């Protein structure tokens, strides 16, 4: 871009609103994220922006001379939230909270703000979406707030920055980044250049003042507004808040974390007085599991550092279509097709002509290969219309030749199953030594999918 423009000149560029890919001309398909019709023209000004320095100190320092406070993290007393962040809020960090509109991002952050303000930390909640009265109405549903909770309705970045610098809060929430705009940038709020500029301002404030800033980003499907993915590389931590609108559960998933492990999840339930933590996700996920039904198998997946039990459901029936229907809800569709092919070839089952549906109950999305064996068993169980013993749990990765391969953290998976009262565990033979010393649960090691089928 540099060579085309002189300082202070305006020019137009095209940006993919999903991933932020930049192009001089309009493109139908984005070369970056392969989405269609996501390019929007934006006018950019070559000026001071983009050349901000984040840090106050300019000269290099010796590492040992850098002082650190004992307690750099603020805990929120929402354990599920702290866990996803790796043990609380890190001061001076910028955290992006993404999710579908209406999923509960504002509610979650309002509750987090309440928790930290109860601990005498000054919080400033800046909304560009709701009026003060509307936020008050929401806050009344959640509980009582102290004087340390401050509110501002503003969308102009300059005023927002001024308010933060003047009020000196410890925690700031920007709800949402797509409503913020910078006067010097001519494109509309929510465009790639606007959200990037706004984020770089907040990054500078967070690092410079040593405060924690949350920015809310709506996930947009149509590419009319820049989504959170455009900002992922700029922030310290990326959290996604997921769930089905109709169901009450919500899952907070860490996808990037500079100060902790990623892929950690926190489970919440949306009630009429706000979000409630789900302390034991396994119990919650297995809630409502049918008794004695065919096609239902319990498996165990590792989410972050924690084992979570899930029910895998399969429905296999004769197809009346030329091309049988296949559907995977909560897991990978291609993996389902692959496992069906393995069953066809290695077990000689005739399911190519059947419709097959797979569902991970509870609305959680699991792509870990450790649930492969459970998917295979659920398919066979439904196909043969024979139910699988309710007290048993199954896990293991399935390879293309039908072999069952070892998985990580087998011991904690078995422990979790035992904790929830399961009596039998079918697991890869390779994982047996890890779990052998656990008592009170019967372990069956299998080498291949065929071995597993012979058991049932
Ligand atoms: P909201 O936090 O406004 O979503 P977002 O900020 O992600 O767009 O959540 C709105 C939904 O949550 C809305 O459908 C109402 C529901 N809700 C409850 O069920 N209980 C509550 O206590 C609150 C505050 C909201
Ligand atoms: Mg909101």
Topology:
Elements: E1 10-16, E2 22-23, E3 39-45, E4 73-74, H1 79-85, E5 89-90, E6 94-99, H2 105-118, E7 123-127, H3 132-142, E8 149-153, H4 157-167, E9 171-175, H5 192-209, E10 212-218, E11 237-242, E12 249-257, E13 265-271, E14 274-277, H6 281-286, E15 296-303, E16 306-318, E17 326-329, H7 333-347, E18 354-360, H8 372-384, E19 392-394, E20 397-398, E21 404-405, H9 410-419, E22 424-428, H10 432-435, E23 442-446, H11 449-455
Helix pairs in contact: 4-5, 7-8
Explain what you see.
The chain has 456 residues and is of the alpha/beta class. Helix content is 25%, strand content 27%. The strands form 6 sheets. It has a 9-stranded mixed β-sheet, with helices on both faces. Strands 15-16-18-17 form a 4-stranded mixed β-sheet. Helix 4 runs parallel beside helix 5 (192-209) and helix 7 packs across helix 8. The chain is globular and about 70 Å long. Residues 105-106, 129, 175 line the site of magnesium ion (MG).
Number of E strands = 23
Radius of gyration: 25 Å
Tell me the strand percentage band.
Answer: 25-35%
Q: Helix count? A: 11
State mean pLDDT (0 to 100 scale): 88
Calculate the terminal CA-CA distance, rounded to whole Å. Answer: 64 Å
Q: Tell me the overall shape.
A: globular
Question: How do you describe this structure in short?
Answer:
By secondary structure, this protein is of the alpha/beta class. The protein is built from eleven helices and 23 strands.
